[in-house]
Amino acid sequence: MKRRDLEKHLRQHGCELLREGSRHAxxxxxxxxxxxxxxxxxxxxxxxxxxAICRVLGVPVPRQA
Length: 65
Known about the structure:
about 60 residues, single chain, globular, Metal Transport, Frataxin, Chain A, alpha+beta, 3 strands
């Protein structure tokens, strides 16, 4: 899954970019206050990584993952 597609999915479910780091971007769910890093790779290949990000932020897993 492309990072851009994951970010779009997170925005649709109430999440927002908190800050950019050199290797990770930090995202926050504004409803729950949950915070998690997202790797800054063009593609996130491992489905487990996508599921873990969504689980921490409290959003549903996208269909492509």
